[in-house]
Every structure is written in C-alpha cells, then in structure tokens.
Design goal:
The structure holds two protein chains of two kinds. By secondary structure, chain A is mainly α. Chain A is built from 13 helices and two strands; from the N terminus they run ααββααααααααααα. In chain A, strands 1-2 form a two-stranded antiparallel sheet. In chain A, α4 packs across α8, α8 (about 170-195) crosses α10 and α10 (about 210-240) runs antiparallel to α13 (about 275-300). In chain B, α11 (about 230-245) crosses α18. In chain B, about 50% of the residues are buried. The chains are: A mainly alpha, B alpha/beta.
Chain lengths: ~300, ~450
C-alpha cells in the first residue's frame, strides 16, 4: 500500500491527480482522535438530546415520547420552582467562585513573585489545593464545620451550624470551592507573571509609576491572555461543581446549595428520570455555551496579545 | 540475556506452581459478590467470605466493593441488558421493589425450595418484610432498626431515671440534659436530630399507619402515598416544628446520621437517633468517656401503637443463566446466614442476627453479656408485629429525598406543616405516577 516515494520537485511540476490513498491519508491520521470524540462526546451528546424527549423506564431506556414536555415541565411546569432555584444558585455560585478564585490566584502569585527566603515553601502551600481531591477535602470539612465538635467553631469560639444554617451554608460552599480553585489559578497566573518582560517595569519606574500604576497598566494587560483562559476554565469548573455539594450539603439547607449539576445527578441516578435529567443537561450545555461565546466576544476588547 | 531468561522461566514457573499449591482456582466455581458496606462492617463481610472460601473447595467467592447501595444499583443498571457483571448483589431494603421489577434476579425462594431449607430460622418480622408475592426474593443479611441513643451518665447526673418513649418525653428532659459553657453558649445539647427519610418511614410505621396505598404496596404496586390523608405526615411535621422551637435541640444534617452521631460520641448531645448498625462503632468511639444507652425508637404521639420495621440490606442472586454459579451463590448466601456467622456479624457491627438460632451461640451470648445495648434492637423488632412490616415502593429513594427536602423547609419555617404535607404529597404522587406510567 505504501506509495513509492516521489521526488517533490516532480510532484510540483506535474500536479498529477492524487491517488485515493493520498486523499484518505490525512483522515486516517485523524481517525483515532475522531473515534474518541465520536464515542465519548458526540454519541453521548446526541443520545442526551434524544433522551430528553422521552420518559425513561427503570433501565434508562426511552419509553414514552413526550416531545418538549420534559423541558416545559422544568421551565414552566410543576418542577419549575426547583429548577429556577437551581439556576439561580448556580449562577451566583459561578460568579463568586470565579471572582474569588481569580482574585486569590492573582494575590497569591503576586505574593511570591519576588524572591525571598521561604518562597518555595509559600508557593507549594498556594499550589497545594491542586493536589487535594475535592471529595477528600469535603470529607475533612464535614468534620471541620461540625457545629459542636468542629475545628472552625473551636477557633472562632462560636457555635454556628455552618452546613445547615441558611445564612451561612452557601457562603461556606463558595469559600471551599474558591480554595480548591486557587491552586490551579496560582500556577497559571504565576507562569503568566514570569512571562512579562522586566524592561516594561523598568521603563515604567523611570517614568515614575507607582506600584498600583504598574499593576494596572502593565501586569494586568500583559496577564490578560492567561486571565482570559483561567476565567473560561474557572467558569466551566464552577458550573460543574458536584462533589462538594454531594458530600457536604446534599443541596440543602432549603435547596440553597442545590446546583444544577447536583439536580441532574439526583434526577438521573436517584429518581430514574433520565429524560428530565437529559433535558436539564441540555439546558446547562446551552448556558455554558452562551457564557463561553460571550467571553470570546469580550476577549476581542479586553485581551491583549503582546 | 541468560540471566533474564532464567528469571523469566522462574517467574513463569512460579505463576504456574502457586495455584497448584492449594486447590487449583479453575476447579472451583467462582462467583462474584458485590457488597456495599465500608469500614468495620466491610471487614466483617470479608471475614465471612474468607471463612467460606476456606470452609470448602468447590466454590470461590470473589468479594468486590461497589460503593454504597445506590452505586451498586446504578452499576447494575449501566450493565443493563447485557451480561450482568456479578452473581450476588447486596442491596438495601428500599431497593426491594425496584430489583424485583428489574427482572435481573432469581428469587432465593426457588433455591430454598430445591434445597428444602427451613425458613423458620429467619426472624419472623424479616421474613414478613422480604416475602413479596408469597416468595422470599432476597435473603436478609444485615438488618437493623433505628434506636434512641442516650448518654446514660448524663441521665444519671441530671437525675433522670426513665428513658422517654415519645418525642414529647424527649423534649421535656432535653432542657435538663443541656449544659452550658462559661460564656453562656451551649456545650451539650439535649438532642441532636438528624433529618433522615428512614426515620419518617419508621414514624409512620410506629403510628400503625400506611405509607402508600394498596396494602402498603404489598397487595399490588403502590399508586399513591397515604401519609398525607391519614395524617401521619402532618403529625411528623408538627413534631419537627417542636424541634425547631426548642433551644435544647440541634439540627444535625439531612440524609444520614453521621453528624448527629459525631456530636453524641463527643458528648455534645445527650441523645441522638441512629441505626443499630452504628452501635458497635459508637460504643468503641465513646470508650470510657461515658456510658452509652440504647432505647426504643420514640413514638411521635403518646397513643401510637404501631411498631418499627426493618432496614438494612439483603443478598440477591443475579440470574446469570449459569446454574452452577447460581447454586454456588445460594450456597454462599446460606453460609452467610448460618447461626455462627450471624452471631459474629452481629457482635462486630450491631446489626441484629437474622437467624433466630444465632442467639444460642456462645459468640452472641458473650457479646450481649458485655454490651447489653446490642439486644435492644432485637427486642424492639420482636415487640413490633409482622403487620408493621413496612411498605414497598419502587421510587422509595426519590420519595425519601423529597421527605428530607420538605422536612427541612418545615423545620426552617419556610413552609407550615400543612403546606409541607401538601407539597410532599404532590411531589411523591407525581414521582410514583411517572414511574408507574413507564414501568408497568
């Protein structure tokens, strides 16, 4: 099958028709990657779209065709209250976690930007959350946040029921998620900081810029490609947060932490309603896609590539 | 190169020779057993499996942990239509209806009949619970009832001699049991209350009322819930309002009892509700700090006259189409519930033995001698009648989750008890209707 090697000069001159194999060759190279995408992404995606138009039986097989009823039920019907609550919870969660995660990422990377004794140690501490599985962290925090025997209440001298008090739980979950997101943000933003040419700061110093000016006019613009990337990753991660909620709150108290991903999980794997869960997934997909498109629009205006 | 070859030959010889040391694995029928407990309870299961594998050389049981009960069911579901990946699966009581309906299994009854095994050794109340359509579909293995755990030492200090049998009784003494720090904050609450759907089911049973229609789902599959119209849910929600109003009661969590037990063990709660399954762990964790008492699960209303039903898990034989493996599975299951193993199981975990003869074994007697709390659960089950056997419902996990959700709203005051009942009934009925529509 291997075609005999043809001198490139010859090919250029003759411009002969490509053989079938030559036309297929690039596709053969793409095939493994395409196969993986089709099996693990496109097939599940279209299956989800398909399922969302059905009521499913206990095995998750499509049984009764209901058209858009799964969607109307969640959007305007009997289960709409719970659905819109989960959207509202998720949107707030994504906002706070992305903002918090980025801020903490920038702050921690700036803190270790200058060389000082213990720099490596501090960097390791800031990057550590990457190495912690969110489930394991949540299990620990379940005890740390216990109202009577938890470490946090001991330290603060309070008796707050962190995980079951409508005033605090959402905030607690956000803080935990921010902490877990900080590690990866720290790594990327640190790398971004190293790439900013030192001359820029030097010339700014000559012009008499103070620290804040340098940060605002040099660091942030030069960092913007990294930040843009991190925002997208953080937003998507925050939308998909599941472990923390599953382990710490089960969506409570009073559904104040019932994120959309958790409600999808409940519908599919607890309630056997794969159709409704599929409809929720599609809605989540549309939301994330819209948000990402908006972000790419915003990129043109606010991201500077060198 | 020679060295390498020699090493390779040696390794090869080892792999071939090793199994030959004992009974060759391929001569034994291997059955895969999916179990769903962790911690001390898992160790005890593995010990029983070990005992079985060493007791004979026909069958080899390969025990695999598959996560909690829900996870195992989900994995079976995912394996779905094709070859099911295990021979024995361990599942919880509220999965009973679902698994029977699934058609994945062969009722244990068929094997019992062929074997002429005497089922009268099974605790009568358990037999009643797991007999569906006149058949024992799965073999009860780890069975529990909920209990009131109390701090005996604290009771003595407060001068309380009688352990309450009703929620009102608990609320009355909660004040006396509450202690304070120097700064006036609460050090130990009278009661830590966990919002766990299983308790709701038990309270309905203790009222002697029905959870769902059609004879609690036993005459035919249930089509709607009954706890709304028979007032059970309202009584329970009114009780939750009392918890909310009492400063001596702390809300622990929803969907389990981990936090409540943690507070109890740390002497931050004088009372807590939890399963018998936790009694061994609780006693061990408390150590010498105080004396652990166990009492019957409390009634909601003083004039209630029902009883508790069982919770816990059973063993199912998967219909693999391979008679040898299914018979081997049955043989192993029979081994799991023999008196000695059930006595051992009970003494390690706190689940009560499902085999009535286990009580005559030395293992059981020695354990009761040392920890009399272990007997409370069993007594409680005996005091309950087979008529409070508990309900069957395919969407139990979903309804349980709604129960917890609505209970929380009532407790925190965003719904009145009446509104709570209305909402819960609506959600539960809709779930049942939806399930029945596509599955029957």
């Amino acid at each position: 099958m291997t075609p005999s090697p043809v001198p490139s000069a010859l090919v250029k001159r003759k411009r002969r028709r490509k053989t079938l194999y030559e036309r297929l060759e690039p596709w053969l190279f793409l095939l493994p990657a395409l196969a993986v995408f089709v099996v693990f992404l496109y097939y599940p995606f279209f299956k989800t779209v398909y399922l969302s138009a059905f009521l499913t039986n206990r095995y998750g097989e499509a049984k009764v065709f209901v058209g858009l009823k799964n969607y109307t039920d969640i959007l305007t019907g009997t289960r709409s209250g719970e659905f819109w609550n989960s959207i509202w919870v998720t949107v707030r969660f994504v906002f706070f976690v992305t903002l918090g995660g980025l801020t903490m990422g920038i702050v921690t990377s700036l803190l270790v930007e200058k060389r000082f004794p213990g720099n490596a140690f501090a960097s390791a501490i800031f990057a550590m959350p990457i190495a912690i599985a969110s489930s394991a962290a949540s299990m620990s925090f379940k005890m740390i946040l216990h109202p009577s025997i938890g470490l946090l209440n001991k330290l603060l001298g309070t008796q707050v029921n962190w995980l079951n008090d409508i005033r605090y739980t959402f905030g607690v979950i956000c803080v935990l998620a921010v902490w877990l997101a900080t590690g990866i943000n720290f790594i990327f933003i640190s790398a971004g900081l190293r790439n900013i040419p030192g001359e820029l700061y030097e010339s700014a110093a000559i012009d008499g810029a103070n620290g804040w000016d340098k940060f605002r006019c040099i660091t942030l613009p030069c960092l913007s490609p990294t930040l843009f990337f991190q925002v997208i990753i953080d937003v998507i991660n925050a939308f998909q947060t599941f472990n923390i909620v599953k382990i710490l709150t089960l969506g409570g108290p009073m559904e104040s932490t019932n994120t959309i991903v958790y409600s999808i999980y409940l519908d599919a794997f607890r309630n056997f309603r794969f159709g409704s869960a599929a409809a929720r997934s599609i809605i989540l997909f549309l939301i994330i896609m819209t948000v990402t498109l908006i972000q790419f629009r915003a990129e043109k205006r606010s991201v500077h590539y060198s | 190169m020679k060295k390498l070859l020699a090493l390779f030959a040696f390794a090869l010889a080892l792999t071939v020779a090793l199994p030959a040391g004992g009974v060759r694995a391929e001569d034994r029928t291997t059955v895969t057993f999916w179990y769903s407990l962790s911690g001390v309870n898992a160790d005890a299961i593995l010990e029983i499996v070990n005992r079985y594998n060493q007791s004979q050389d026909k069958v080899f049981v390969d025990a695999q942990y598959q996560g909690e009960y829900d996870d195992a069911i989900n994995k079976l579901k995912a394996a779905g239509m094709g070859q099911l990946p295990c021979d024995i699966v361990h599942s919880y009581e509220i999965g009973t209806r679902f698994i029977i309906d699934s058609g994945w299994i062969r009722p244990v009854q068929e094997f019992i009949d062929a074997d002429h095994w005497d089922t009268s050794v099974i605790e009568p109340n358990l037999l009643a619970y797991y007999t569906v359509d006149g058949k024992i579909n799965s073999m009860p293995f780890n069975c529990s009832t909920p209990l009131l755990y109390y701090n005996k030492t604290a009771f003595e200090e407060a001068g309380i001699t009688e352990v309450p049998t009703t929620i009102d009784g608990i609320l009355e003494i909660a004040e006396k049991l509450t202690t304070y720090n120097a700064n006036g904050s609460v050090d130990r609450y009278g009661l830590y209350i966990s919002n766990y759907g299983w308790f709701f089911e038990q309270w309905v049973g203790k009222m002697g009322r029905e959870y769902v229609n059609n004879g609690n789902g036993r005459e035919s599959y249930a089509t709607r819930v009954m706890f709304g119209e028979n007032g059970a849910a309202l009584d329970i929600f009114n009780m939750w309002r009392k918890f909310a109003e009492s400063p001596y009661v702390m809300y622990a969590e929803r969907g389990g009892t981990t936090q409540g037990r943690a507070a109890f063990v740390a002497n931050k709660a004088a009372m807590a509700l939890a399963s018998t399954a936790n009694i061994a762990g609780t006693i061990a964790n408390v150590g010498d700090a105080f004396e652990v008492g166990a009492a019957y699960f409390p009634y909601v209303n003083p004039d209630d006259d029902g009883g508790v039903s069982t919770g816990g898990g059973t063993l199912w034989i998967i219909d693999s189409g391979n008679e040898a493996r299914m018979n081997a599975s049955y043989d192993f299951i029979k081994f799991c519930v023999n008196p000695e193993n059930q006595a051992y199981w009970s003494s390690i975990t706190g689940y009560f033995p499902i085999n009535v003869n286990a009580r005559d074994t030395e293992t059981f007697k020695a354990n009761i001698e040392k920890n009399p709390q272990f007997e409370v659960a069993l007594d409680q089950l005996h005091d309950s009648g087979p008529q409070y056997v508990g309900s069957l419902l395919s969407v139990f996990p979903e309804v349980r989750q709604y129960v917890e959700e609505v209970t929380e709203k009532v407790y925190m005051g965003s719904l009145t008890p009446e509104q709570g009942v209305e909402e819960l009934v609506r959600m539960a009925d809709e779930a049942i209707e939806n399930y029945n529509l596509v599955n029957y």
